[in-house]
Design goal:
With 227 residues, the protein is α+β, with helices and mostly antiparallel strands. The protein is built from 6 helices and 9 strands. Helices cover 28% and strands 27% of the residues.
């Protein structure tokens, strides 16, 4: 009688990925949600997800799922953690690894997103989400808040050129609180990697506002960031 393989004596589970995709527009932090067209929980709101395939790492699976939904590659992503309550998914025993992603809301493939029945929702006015997806979102947002205070990850949510008003609005949306304008601009002025350009944004007024950009090379040399 052949010896039993050690692994064969243990149960097998499904491993899935759930993507918490943040975008920023008109002063608000948004979350990309999917209205499910399949069971379980058909017709309800959920995060975008899928199963890890045999030849994939969890990181690769997260990148694939994000690309399938948005058409984007080389997006800032970070793992949030594992969610493995026994009855978290009524369909099967599924352990999910959650990731959050920060994307420029103007860059994604809008037709592709629409084909998946996905929509942007204000982070402060989210509908009820299936399973433990709200728990994932809350944990991801807390991680993002902490990381955004010491690393310039928030710039992934902005266009290449931005105004200081847009930058302040972004960090107010991330932190969920008002930031003093004078103190904010003083801190920005101390960061060499936030460069003033010669271009003007006149979409808000005739006079317009100066546009800025982030210089990644300078940031990597100095490493100084605190907002």
């Amino acid at each position: 009688m052949p010896k039993r393989n050690y692994y064969s004596t243990h149960p097998k589970f499904y491993v899935s990925i759930d993507c918490i995709i943040f975008g920023f527009q008109k002063g608000k932090l948004n979350l990309l949600l999917l209205k499910r067209n399949f069971e379980p929980s058909k017709g309800n709101w959920s995060l975008m997800g899928g199963f890890v395939q045999k030849e994939e790492s969890t990181d690769d699976a997260a990148k694939r799922i994000l690309h399938e939904l948005t058409g984007l590659e080389k997006v800032y992503m970070e793992q949030v953690g594992a969610f493995g309550e026994i009855d978290r998914d009524p369909g099967e025993r599924v352990i999910s690894i959650a990731y959050y992603a920060l994307i420029n809301i103007d860059d994604y493939d809008k037709k592709l997103v629409q084909s998946h029945n996905a929509h942007w929702a204000d982070i402060n006015k989210l509908p009820e989400l299936i399973f433990d997806h709200r728990e994932m979102v809350d944990k991801a947002r807390n991680i993002m808040k902490q990381k955004a205070s010491v690393k310039p990850i928030g710039f992934n949510l902005l266009p290449e050129l931005f105004t200081l008003t847009q930058l302040q609005s972004l960090y107010e949306a991330i932190y969920g609180e008002t930031i003093d304008k004078r103190n904010f601009r003083k801190r920005v002025a101390e960061m060499e990697f936030i460069e003033k350009t010669e271009e003007i944004d006149k979409s808000g007024s005739k006079r317009g506002a100066r546009l800025y950009r982030m210089n990644g090379d300078i940031y990597r040399k100095t490493g100084k960031f605190k907002i």
